[in-house]
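Continued from yesterday's entry.
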Amino acid sequence: MKKITLGLSLLSALVSANALSAPTANIKVTGDIKPPTCTVNGLTQNDILFDLGNISPSLIPQSEPYLYPKGIAENTVNIECDVDTYLTFNATDTYASSSLTIPDIITGNKDPVVFHLVDAKDTTKSVGGIFFYWKNVKVDGKAAFISSSNDANSNASSGNDILVTEVTNGWTNTQQFKVDKNSLDLVAGKLFSATFATPTNVTSYPTFLLSGKELSDKSIDTSNSVDFIGEAVLTFNFGV
């Protein structure tokens, strides 16, 4: 009887030893939800320069606006974020409060589309206007679209690639135009890019200076050097 009892005790000990030595694996999950940190062309705030160059006062007609050549300026904007995100933006015109009479050659409701050029010495005096459009749109190096919503200035005369003030635009999988902003088919990514340029259609969207008479009526003397500036501010958001 003792042998049998001893045998059972040894078996029990062996089974317990095997149970204690069994390997284990812990599957741990980690993650983070945080607002993206993004840069524009490598900086948190960046000036994208459109240099229209110098022109002689003699080139400005007395009774008609001066029209710059088509596609005179362009620049590429790269927005790089540290995590995947959606990206939208709105544009505002810093000098929108300056009085500007849009030339008759520009038809339709272009007020929300033209960005004012003003006298650098007195920014209450507009000297002309500029339009912008986008091209070469990409997300993470792949072709994409910038689409616009109808949340502001929906009656503006513009195409689906023209920058309109206050409107929510976003990088999307498909081309959309004047849709509800919550219906934008946004595409997620880390690197968003687009080239902003002055339009090639100088009839509908010209970069222009006011006529000599209009400038004179504003007491702007073009016989001396006149520096002018304009500014479109793009404010980016992570979603709509």
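--- second protein ---
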Amino acid sequence: MLTTVIHIFLHDFIRKGRQMTRRPVCLVCLFLMLCMCLADLAGVPLIRGNPLPETVQTYIKKHPDSVICGEVQRCQATEFSFSVYLKQVYLICRSEKIPIENVRVFLKTEEKLPAGTAVCISGKLEQVEAPRNPGEFDSRQYYACQHIYYFMKNGIIKRKSRVYSGYQQFLLDLKDRIHTVLKLSAGRDAPVFEAMLLGEKSELDQELKLRYQMAGMVHILAISGVCFLCWVFLIGERMA
């Protein structure tokens, strides 16, 4: 996929010649993608694959029931599960601590875990599944971009700290507050505003998302500096 994109940019560069010099952003993107492709070919994947050493991957396969420790990044509650995103995670192997990047943990029971809380959790580690059918959503690639290569199922909290990050928790509470306000004020259009303001697309209707894609306006649903400034301008005009 990455090689195909680079090939398209190179073809465009050759076809248009000097016009590309007027597109400095395109040149920067082309250079970055070329670096990513070379790093991938050199065996150093930046946004895909599992960068953990083979010995660590083999150990996890042989010993899936493990204990990990990390810092709570955020929690996510759905109709069917309650999960915690951990960062700076390390695997407890006898007396050693092996770093394994970030992990999403599915807990057996829902617990209040403020952002920044240090926790130790026992459960079953499983590598994020790859797509089974052509064209299927690539969960492994999606989570690899977040440096998450493993899920932990049936997690049980063994220990947790009383100290947490007040600043990070404030931001999460603010996000939840905005989410509630949008629900009450925007009604059925709330998922669209949530995608624009919060980057939250979980409640966005797939049919509506497809319509935006077909109209070539799916970028409206993504957070950007321009979108943020537009909202600031509109709010400022309203207040004035």
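The longest strand covers residues 65-77. Residues 163 and 200 are 28 Å apart (CA to CA). Will compare against the first tomorrow.
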